[in-house]
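Hi P.,

Sorry for the delay on this. The queue was packed all week, but I finally got your sequence through. Input first:
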Amino acid sequence: MKIFIFNFKRCNILYAFGLILQAFVLQAQTDSSAFKRRPTDTTQLPLNMDAVYNRPFLQYKKIPVALGGYVEANTQYAVTNGVSDGFSFQMKRMTLFVSSSIHRKIKFLSEIEFEDGTKEINIEFAALDVQLHPLLNFRGGVIMNPIGAFNQNHDGPRWEFVDRPLSATQLLPATFSNVGFGFFGKTYQRNFVWAYEVYLTNGLNDRIIGNVSNRTFLPATKQDPDRFEESFNGVPLTTAKTSLRVKKIGELGLSYMGGVYNKFQDDGLALDKRRRADVLAIDFNTTLPGSGTTLITEFAWIFVDVPDTYTQQYGSRQHGGFIDIVQPIICRKMLGFENASFNAAVRAEYVDWNKGTFRETGGNIADDAFAIVPALSFRTSPQTVFRLNYRYQVQTDLLGNPASRTGAIQFGISSYF
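Then the structure:
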């Protein structure tokens, strides 16, 4: 017999959004001309940390609440080692934004994501920002931990590829967020901007080494249903990032995330020593003058204190990253779209879940994956993109047996609304 449990928290989220949307619809029926797009940040030197607010929002007259969001859907045909399950259509995600200017120095923004239909509903961001000084701003609530660049700048319409980077989803926990507080700030000069972020949030948990993947796997920490309510072990997670963007050169970001992931005591009784997981990441992006070629890259290194009682399939060191190259081919009015563009792109990505050698033989521990993804994209505007990708991926198991090879043709669309 199946037992169905009604999720009141999920219902409340949907109900609240329903009331907001209903209010906007009723107003639209009376005066649709009063709606306007709130302009995004037009700063000449935007940073990845600005992506959370640098989105298109719809606002009605002078109401302090604005709405926005984006949607992603695609189809793919994949073959692994000559075996295919045929075509699959996927509703990857629909994300809703609600922002409010409570005061000229106080802003609130929430980001709620519906993945795979409504298989998962996640609050990815719900924070209050209070401006004290350009170099000192307070942020509190559900904060997106700024490890790397993709975690902050992850909106589907910004990318030419159907899948998110392998290193961002299978190595780092993509769109990773926690409850906490911290500070951020930036300073501008004529040709550069420097910024920083520092947060203390609820931390990691032992799902990193206790998961169905049977490997050290940071994304599994997101599966803890209580991480927005309490800390797993009482030790805060520290996340810090600094970024520098120089005009005509690009943006360089350095970030760190680390903390204790195990439950080392219970009611004062010592269970284990404190075991840490630490992540270092570097990211860089630029647009070459003249050609308009965009280069985006990110690499991360992970260090985990794995207990000696665990087998060697649980790696204590991991690394990986990706590099995207996007080349505009045609940029002009096309098919009735004023600011359309046709682009060619390619992504190369690599992850190694277990960097090391076997103690007994000295042989290399494999457990890695490499993929290359050539792509074509058609943008009707910067906010809407049609994407055609071919994904070729080679994945090797722990023992270095002959690799599995996957080829996939993917077509999708993503758009802000």
